[in-house]
Amino acid sequence: MTRTTAARLVGHGQPLRVEEVDLAEPGPDEVVVTLAYAGVNPVDRYGALGGVATDGPVPRTLGTEGTGRVEGRAVLIRGHGLGTSRDGLWAGAAVVPEAALTDVPDGVDLPEAAAMGVAGLTAWRVVTEIGQVAASDRVLVLGSNGGVGSIAVSVAHRLGATVWGQTMDANNTEWLARRGADHVVVGGVEELSGATADFAPTVVIDPLGGAFTGASIEVLAPHGRLVIFGTSAGPTGELPLRSLYRKGLTVLGYGGLIEPDEVLAKALKEALGALADGRLEVPVEAVLPLAEVNDALSRMASRGARGKLVLDVSGA
To answer: What pLDDT shows up at residue 131?
Structure first.
């Protein structure tokens, strides 16, 4: 029986425990993947706290995306209940469905690819597929220093759009400019409302929710599109309904957790292709050892990281 080191959820709201575990024997249509890197995402933290996958097994290994090798083949692994309804990828090895594998294109580094299964895929879809961003658009990306936001800035920029980012920390300004932001708004709702009056974005990418969603509706240009896919600033908020209908705005929601795996697999191949040919950038803030998984979750919760945090599980 194969043994590996894994980051285990032993109780909701408790620190993860890094310990050795036995891997189950692979069943029909399953394979054992030797893992290299794994992404750290809000959904993993919510799973640890009991906010999602509340009926998932405990204890279990967390981690919903990662990269590794199967018989020398470089692969990205995601979906199919990994980390939620079954053991996930924060481990040195894992038993996964073959359908969860996507080949990593030549020239793509495994740490960057490890962030594509959730953040990269989300950014690609909300900009290109849901938001339908074109070169003629003026795009405002809220939370632009985050994992999804920073990638979304790069995608919109490479499409030729004019891109503004929003962040709460002025230290992120130059960093976001290197990602492709033409201008950066520093501050919250009040600063956003004043700074964007002349910009009048045609598209707002919103992972924040709360009061930011209503403010986005106020600053959007007529016939603009609001794409919301998260509520890290608050799950509820008041909406200016007169502005919404008088401007003829469109509000679009994206929830990756409800999408069929086959739909996500197709979009993931497209996103990986964009990463390979430079139409998408994954800024990795830090690669941390698996032993520091709880620190990684704390850094993400405090919004202290710029871009993506990735775990190195190759020695686990």
So the answer is: 98
